[in-house]
Amino acid sequence: LKKLTPKIKLAVPSDFRQAIKEENSQKDNFFQFTSRDMSLYHAGTSLSRINLKIANRIGENLLINAEKLATIAALLGAEYPDKPLDKAWRQLLCNQHHDSITGTHNEISYVDLMIAYRESLELAYGVLNDSLKYINKAANLKIIGQEIPIRIFNSLSWDRKDICYVRVNFPNECFSFEIRDSSGKNISYQIISEEK
Q1: Does pTM top 0.90 for this prediction?
Q2: Fewest C-beta in 10 Å: which of 34, 59, 104, 122?
Q3: Which CB contacts under 8 angstroms, 24+ apart, belong to 69-77?
């Protein structure tokens, strides 16, 4: 090892820290500090950019649900939205490249990736909403009296007991109401906000 150029020295982490201290002892600034994202000075270190992972997971789940409901709507007569789904999946999958999803890139690349995720989510939401509207219209529920039908879609293959948030527009002033399931059983509810 003594004959190699550059010189190589085998050491432990404490030796490394000591060498850095000695090398920088004569300088005013021991280390360069940053107040924002360190990637401007120390590219690829100490970053994970969790927002990328969150956007990716939301996109995957949303696109799967959009595809399921678009298929049901297509079976009922709607045109299958292959172009927006294809573009949304391409945007999402392109962002899953190992240099992207890890978050070890600069600020400009991060913004570009988040814009691509946003476009993917907007396309998926569009497909999902259009499919739900079509399915809802095709269901053609018989309304009795002043009933207001509320449909809840479950895209999973098992029963769920999740909390649902629903916005209801009453045609006339309403002082009391009840919510019932398809078998007539009362469902408990809570009013979160009210607009007159």
Answers
A1: no
A2: 34
A3: 69/127, 69/128, 69/131, 69/132, 69/135, 69/153, 69/155, 70/127, 70/128, 70/130, 70/131, 72/131, 72/135, 73/130, 73/131, 73/134, 73/135, 73/138, 76/134, 76/135, 76/138, 77/134, 77/138
